[in-house]
Design goal:
This protein has 2 domains: 102 residues, Immunoglobulin-like (Sandwich), CATH 2.60.40; 362 residues, TIM Barrel (Alpha-Beta Barrel). The longest helix is centred in the N-terminal third of the chain and has 22 residues. Helix 6 packs across helix 7 and helix 11 runs parallel beside helix 12. Strand 17 and strand 18 form a beta hairpin. It has 12 helices and 22 strands. The relative contact order is 0.18. A 9-stranded mixed sheet has the order 2-1-22-19-18-17-3-20-21, covered by helices on one side. It has an 8-stranded parallel beta barrel with strand order 4-5-6-7-8-9-10-12, surrounded by 7 helices. A 3-stranded mixed sheet has the order 13-15-16. It is an alpha/beta fold. It starts with a helix and ends with a strand.
Length: 494
Amino acid sequence: MLKKVNLSLLSFLGIFSLFAQEDKRNITVYETSESGHQLTEISSFSTSTQPSSLYINQNKHLQTISGFGGAFTEASASLLNQLGVENREKILRAYFAKKGANYSLARTHMNSCDFSLSNYSYTPVENDLNLEHFSVKEDQDDLIPMIKEAMAISEDGFRLFASPWTAAPWMKDNNSWVGGKLLPKYYDTWALFFSKYVDAYKAEGIDIWGFTVENEPHGNGNNWESMIYSPEEMTNFVQNHLGPKLEADGKGDLIILGYDQNREGLNEWVDEMYKDEASSKYFDGTAIHWYESTYDFFPKALQYAHEKAPNKYLIQTEACVDHEIPVWKNDAWYWKKEATDWGYTWREEEKKYLHPKYAPVNRYARDIIGCLNNWVDGWVDWNMVLDKQGGPNWKKNWCIAPVIVDPEKDEVYFTPLYYVMAHFSKFIRPGAKIINVLNSDPALMVAAAENPDTSISVVVFNEGKTEKSYTLELGEYKKIISIEAQAIQTVVIN
């Protein structure tokens, strides 16, 4: 009898100990929803539906996260300069402060781009082979002050990489800002350009983490600044000119990302970039955009790129709701399938299915989660701030940014897209490891990561029109959580 009592007591104590262990876990749930939540902390959950199961496999680590963020553009920077001091700081703190989205990875442009106010180059003097007249003075009024203010706000710091849209026209075979190719006789001069840029920004107090070789090397239909490369031409330039030049100048630790365009064309580029040891030597990774389709994140292409170079970066470097004028202070629009993209009206008939109408929030959430579950380690949005027209830019190429402003009235609108980005950037930090999730409900999209501080962040997206419940399982720990219809959640477990 005594033995039985003792066994029962031990069993009870074991159960008590388990619950005590469970109680030690702190769990916080943040939700953004069509109903109006904006990264709102949620503490009570409905159990009205049969819960599905999300099992977090902490023992299976995948890629290491580089970061999340957006791009510094002249368009965004010029708008900030038109706002009052209070709103300017409000926006930058929202993006870079710990209490905000805490962006950790950012992009900027070298020379002008479509979201510049005019065409310009740091090398305006023709046949200046040694770039003795190189100057970033065009960036000193708007772009550089924005970057430096963000740096001052960011407690954790962020990595900054730069992308050229084009060389100066005098270096190209068509002598134009738009289209054309870099003349081979200027390959060394163009490699020097990257090195000079690093030095010039260093003199301004800004460290550059790395580069993409060329924004959209397929071109953009000859609409704005561009410069065309084939996979072979870009690989040759990096292998024989850019990589050796940076190495010779003591800048061999700078990151070089190849490609930098849509995922549909990814396979042929990684085949060339990583075809052998010599071709891949100076490429640190691959950059991609999302504009090929409005509903597919191209998992097979992402997996293929990873398999070709499993130890190199795979970073989504640009995404936005393109060819749309922002809807002002109407959160509901961003949750509805009313947005269209560049291919909606003109794409050839057999490929129009790639461009259905979509809800901007859904596209962001689906793409980021899809990328994280297919080896992408960084995800960077496009412009941080645009005006009510979707500009300014010299080309009138209107787009939507997470933050929209009315500079004339000094008003700011944080769209739902800002909160979607924050669900990832705020809670999945650089150095985090993506971990496997066993998900019993195909209607939920889920990604999870273990942060360097050992906290675990689980992002759940419910695109459906009904509330759902799920049992979150981590080892012995279980908790039933509900998620609203049309909502994204981040669950933080400490």
